[in-house]
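Journal club side-thread
Mid-discussion, someone asked how the predicted structure for our own chain would compare to the paper's figures. Pasting it here so we can look after the session.
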Amino acid sequence: MTIINSIKNMKQFRYLLSQLVGRDFKVKYKRSVLGVLWSILNPLLMMTVMNFVFSNLFKFDIPNYIVYLMVGLVFFNFFAEATNLAMSSIVGNFSLITKVYVPKYIFPLSKVILSLINFGFSLIALYFIIFLSGIRLNFAHLLLPLDFIYIAIFALGVSLFLSAISVFFRDMFYIYGIVLMTWTYLTPIMWPESIIPSQYLIYFKLNPLYHYIKYARDIILHGQIPSLNQHLLCLAVSLITLAFGVWFFRRRQNDFIYYI
């Protein structure tokens, strides 16, 4: 019944959802000369700096390192942006929440959708680098949208949790910045997993983002179709995280008004 009601609310408030996404999109690029081009240039510029640092100073010998790095950056940046924006979505819309009834999950959801749009622009930059690197496309690339769905569901689950807990615990805004920075270095974005001793690798594989990024790299760099186990693992982690996020958000949402 809860799922059915959520779907009905989604249809009823889809105009509001589109307005929230449109508003945030316009605000982000307001008075910017390059506008949405920054969504393409940003990962390219970051890739250029990191490629110089890690390929020259740290001497990582990874085939097609630029593409390897770019895939990690694009996926992790999407997750980081979505969860960061969503975390303040309830607190930032307190005036609307206290005046009229709207499903409160609309606000973190709108941030994830906005980040998905930016993610789409970043993919343009990614495929630009892929073509320049001479990597051939194959039918395995048709499975990449599944990975986008998996990581988007995972990001939404985390976003629902963060947006709810930050209403009661404002220090979360500062703590999560440290968590994200740590998470960045514990994810094989700019370094190869081969540098991790085999006995410790299992702990790194507990990181969900490791699997989403590996899924994409297997397709793009190796032309491999991800195994059924990879699909099931990514899907399971995403759905479990979303279920927890929904449960926590619904459990706490009625108390938002007392703390906002």
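Post-session note: Residues 187 and 210 are 6 Å apart (CA to CA).
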